[in-house]
Amino acid sequence: MRLIIFGTLFLVVIANWLWPLPLSLPMRLMSSLLIIVAALYHQWCRLSSGSVLVPEMPRPLVILFNWAFGALLFLTVLQLIVDLAAVLIALIFWHPVQIGTEARIAIGGVAASLSAWGVRNALIVPPIRDIAVTLPGLAPAFNDFTLLQLSDLHITTLFPSSWVSAVVARANAAKADVIVVTGDFIDGSVPMRHEDIIPLSGLTARDGVYAIPGNHEYVFDYKEWMKALGTLGFDMLLNRHIVIRRDDAALVIAGVTDMAAGRHNEPVPDLESALEGCPPNAPVVLLDHQPGNARKAATRGIGLQLSGHTHGGMIRGLDRLVARANQGFVSGRYQLGSMTLYVSNGTGLWPGFALRLGCPAEITRVCLHAPSRTPTWKTRFLHATDARKP
Predict the structure, then answer these.
(1) pLDDT tops 70 at residue 379
(2) Using CA atoms, how far apart are residues 39 and 30, in angstroms rounded to an integer?
(3) What is the pLDDT of residue 271?
(4) Cβ 33 vs Cβ 22: under 8 Å
(5) Which of 82, 281, 300, 341 could lock onto 294 through a cystine, CB 3.0 to 4.6 A?
(6) Domain boundaries, the chain
(7) Segment 324-332 mean pLDDT
């Protein structure tokens, strides 16, 4: 079905954009072939690795494919807009439909430039994004406690060990009390990614490094990945919690498995099990890869939920469609009663469509404080930013 849909769309590019250009027949044929090759990017991924999710190709080639595939998508949309505008103008002025060569060249340049900028934005090592969260029930001993969230790393040939090392260095430099990873570490099997994931063992934080799986871990031998991540120093919170203490005060960090687990005969998300035995009245930070169940978590007294999965929608405008598929949640902060939900835009990106426009990647540093604490000007500013309604 994907092949039919994209094939139909890209025929628009060949028939309505390329073929009317003043090019020789050999040039038209060669250009048509290149468009078809780029349009079949995900089929080449499947041939390279056995999975449409993993392009096991040299990194420059993956970057080139992402740029070409993105440019074709933008060009398809722009050409359809130009076609519609030309038809409307023809009807209004009652003359034949006319689209000049200059217009076709212009939208080709715009599409290529947008895609290049989008790929560039996807590949950078993200900056630290600071937010402040009022956590009900937080003891004074935990005021200014910081959690650093990484999410959706998607370690592959596109995001290799050099990129991972740079992310780890930036994360450690943030000097958070806790580091958490909210799923989708990888695309590929353990043998495929063995070298690229090694830098993750360098993540360090005063009160530990914790993680949960994302939906992609289940595609590539979930049990093997849980073992591998454990050897790298991650405490995997699979429907369970840990307790961090400051003298007599406690803070709970709980985690659940991903909603994809049931399709792979693995333990499904179980919030009740994750919270079983929590110290009474201790505030809870929940790690859940997908934000879709946030309303349920809010009814269980969770104070803060950290999620990812959506990549922030990747492209402004497309984020509205992604939100619809995730119960209205796509990027940033949401307030659900007394619970704060924060949905990370992701640190990396799936290499099958690695473009970002208006939805920047991030490494998120969350500073916690109690409701009774008088916020500083910086805390008030951080509270005021990124506020969204579901």
Answers:
(1) no
(2) 14
(3) 97
(4) no
(5) 341
(6) 2-123, 128-388
(7) 94
